[in-house]
Write a structure and sequence with these properties.
- There is one protein chain.
- The protein has a domain of about 140 residues.
- The protein is built from ten helices and no strands.
- α1 runs parallel beside α8 and α2 runs parallel beside α8.
- It is globular and about 60 Å long.
Length: about 220
């Protein structure tokens, strides 16, 4: 009788599909990379997206090693992380609101600002996903779709690395799409309205995260 294969590719494929749906759906990370790309161009969007992907992979490791379940069971730690994540989203909302209140600026000015901000974008993206404990819960949900009790560490590693790559590709696609010339020119024209809307969405996400922390507590 043949032994069990090292990797259950059917289960891994199910994990990839579930993770793609979760990661590609609109949320603070995809909203942020879209806004950065429209305002500052593809390179900045890619740098920001790389930071997001690294933060996402951290929670993947947490979930794959079983620490995600510990985090979910630890009420106090989860509350702290949700409050920190909410505060960071409020900070992003504040930054977008400040941008919305500034007088109209030219695309050349945006390009100059982009060059001076490139070194900080990676860290901003990293912190955004690191401060989002819901990412760990999403990872656990995705991994539970295709992993069984008999699956070995090879399947877990392949699933985690594959989902990390999927996350990076998703952010790269968002960056490429929202850095198209037409979209960037549209952003310059309607910058104040767009930044105001982004600030509102970030604030709503922050309130939801903090509210969930208070209710859980």
């Amino acid at each position: 009788m043949k032994g069990r294969p090292m990797i259950d590719w059917t289960g891994v494929a199910a994990i990839f599909a579930a993770f793609f749906i979760v990661a590609a759906s609109p949320g603070p990370a995809t909203l942020a990379v879209s806004a950065v790309s429209a305002a500052s161009g593809r390179k900045c969007g890619m740098i920001f997206g790389a930071g997001l992907a690294l933060g996402l992979s951290f929670w993947g490791v947490v979930a794959a090693t079983g620490l995600g379940a510990v985090l979910q069971a630890s009420t106090q730690l989860l509350v702290v992380l949700k409050v920190v994540g909410g505060l960071y989203l409020f900070w992003l909302a504040y930054g977008s609101a400040r941008s919305a209140m500034r007088a109209d600026i030219k695309k050349s000015d945006l390009d100059s600002q982009a060059r001076s901000r490139e070194t900080r974008l990676f860290i901003r993206g990293l912190v955004l996903n690191l401060s989002n404990p819901k990412a760990a819960i999403a990872w656990m949900a995705a991994l539970s779709v295709g992993l069984g009790a008999d699956d070995g560490p090879v399947s877990v590693v392949v699933a985690t690395l594959g989902c990390t790559l999927i996350g990076l590709i998703i952010y790269a696609v968002y960056a490429a799409a929202f850095s198209l010339s037409a979209i960037m020119l549209g952003y310059v024209k309607f910058r104040r309205w767009i930044d105001g809307m982004v600030a509102t969405l970030f604030a709503i996400a922050a309130l939801a995260l903090v509210r969930s922390a208070l209710i859980r507590n």
